[in-house]
Design brief:
alpha+beta, 15 strands
Amino acid sequence: MKRALILAAAAAVLCSCASKNQFVIEGNVAGTNDVVYLLDKKRTPLDSATVENGAFRIKGVADTPSVAYLADARDMQGTFATMVILEPGTITVADNAENPQFKLVSGTVSNDANKAYSEAGMALTKEYRNPETSDERRSAIEKEYEALTDKALEQNLSNFFGAMLLSQQSYDIGQPYIDVVQNDAQGKELSLKSVVENPENKYVLLDFWASWCGPCMGEVPHLKKTYEEFHKKGFEIFGVSFDSKAEDWTEAVEKNGMDWIHVSALSGFDNQAAEDYAVRGIPSNFLIDSEGKIVAKDLRGDELYEKIAELLAE
């Protein structure tokens, strides 16, 4: 009897903890497939739910906050895929009328912070791309975009979203690069490693961008100038697109004469490279030398040309 009472008490404690750390994901996404999947960072299914008229519900326990992905296809190539931060509370996933490519994830502290951060970045991007925006205002937007992460970090030091941003800051100059393996426009798998280890390349710029990102497209003339001047001297660009549609990606490359290496998982920010390099905003870039070490990051405007000119002159 005593043993039974002890087991019952232990079970009660476990139930109490589970209840305390329980999360619920409630979604309503138009046009989704019949089943949605909750995937971990390695894209391993954690749970799934049947969709009825766009609505679904998933319950679980988050002993510690973590990043996961919600998608209506196990390979994340369905009608939608979005990042969620698993933490106690009710997490809501809804359509985004302003930008259908992105779903609105909210309801808990970290997810609300991530939503606010993403929406602020999208608002700046939209204003930047507006033909009526002046050059002076575009310059100001670029500075605001750069300061966005610092501000978000300062405001979220006590939650998991802040920890995510902090991890991005820690991936810095002097560290070894992480390989990126994605498909090129012809569907052929291509690795960053093969480019870095190519003896013809002395420096490789790992460039994260997207066709819908105004500041990214604003960097293209600087990338082209640097590439045309120094490619034959050992400079290469490995572009990783955060586009979701192949036609948007390839059209931007062709239209803008971006004649360097390009790959994409066609899944927005929800890809392994974004996770490995803790990329929370674009444009973002890392300059890698022939030894595989990061020697500079986030080179914008004329800074890229000047840095490459300096390095290749040594």
